[in-house]
Amino acid sequence: MAEYYLDFEKPIVELEKRIDELHGLEGVSDEIGKLERQVDRLRKKVYSRLSRWQIVQLARHPRRPYTLDLVPYLFTEFTELHGDRGYADDSALVTGIGRFRGRSVAIAGHQKGHDTKERTKRNFGMPHPEGYRKALRIYNMAGRFKLPVINFVDTPGAYPGVGAEERGQSEAIARNLQEMSVLRTPIIVIVTGEGGSGGALAIAVGDRIYMLEYSFYSVISPEGCASILWRDSTKAPMAAEALKFTSRDNLVHGVIDDIIEEPAGGAHRDWALTAKLIGDKISEALAELEKLPADELIARRIGKFRAMGKYKNSS
């Protein structure tokens, strides 16, 4: 995979490259130690002051791990399951079954792709209705066999093409929301990158909803918001600040249950550690949720979503 650095990462990367050049040379251990401390200070300074637009850039980083990148670290005996048994298989949404730390689980997640060929195949992580119907088929199977469901969300949104609308995009999303609300097995959701509108929500009705530290979850993309409000998509950074859609924003607003910290410099720097941090949170959640009777699990899940948001009656 080709190297790719965001503008605000470059000063850190330059120092890291300097350290790599010094390794192997004699008599430079003090200089290496000094540079490593400098890198740590600079990284903490940069990542403690990220704007919402910079977080969007991190969430979209081409080296960020997607569902199939995380699967080998988190699951054993993973078997991918294809097709909605009605129209086609959608490569933008991956589903399957596997074992997580000794438990059998069902898995679903968006898949974008790391190069042009794969991104085209995966439709840039934007599912068609058959993708959501495939996921629902797996959820129903999980309900029958009492398998916990693990979902990974990372999509700009559901595909808005004519064909997708003709085949019932909105109905497919709505059906998933309805069926997941009453699924009689634990559902854990992790927003790993972009959480784009209904395309994300269609697999994000869960008992526990977590976000990676540098992900975002919103009703619309910043570019889409800027195009509507100002007729100018270049004002996306301004829209990002207005939308307040980062992990910390969503935790404050009660949309998610917790934030999963990322490795220093972001998830794209260390896939294995990112997966471990996600896995620990999943394990913690399952230990709590598997103790609950199905009726109580459903009641809590529905109550969780009904409690979201604040409103006032106006006369």
SSE arrangement:
Blueprint: H1 10-22, H2 29-47, H3 52-59, H4 67-74, E1 76-81, E2 93-100, E3 103-110, H5 116-121, H6 129-145, E4 149-155, H7 162-166, H8 169-181, E5 187-196, H9 197-201, E6 208-212, E7 216-218, H10 222-230, H11 236-243, H12 247-252, E8 258-260, H13 271-289, H14 294-306
Parallel strand pairs: 3-4, 4-5, 5-6, 5-7, 6-8
Antiparallel strand pairs: 1-2, 2-3
Helix pairs in contact: 1-2, 3-11, 4-13, 6-8, 10-11
Q: Can you offer a commentary on this structure?
A:
With 315 residues, the protein is α/β, with parallel strands linked by helices. It folds into 2 domains: 7-49; 54-306, Alpha-Beta Complex (2-enoyl-CoA Hydratase, Chain A, domain 1). 47% of the residues lie in helices and 16% in strands. It is built from 14 helices and 8 strands. The chain has helices at 10-22, 29-47, 52-59, 67-74, 116-121, 129-145, 162-166, 169-181, 197-201, 222-230, 236-243, 247-252, 271-289, 294-306; strands at 76-81, 93-100, 103-110, 149-155, 187-196, 208-212, 216-218, 258-260. Strands 1, 2, 3, 4, 5, 6, 7 and 8 form an 8-stranded mixed β-sheet that branches. A hairpin with a 2-residue loop joins strand 2 (93-100) and strand 3 (103-110). Helix 3 crosses helix 11, helix 4 (67-74) crosses helix 13 and helix 6 runs parallel beside helix 8 (169-181). The longest helix has 19 residues, at 29-47. It is globular and about 65 Å long.
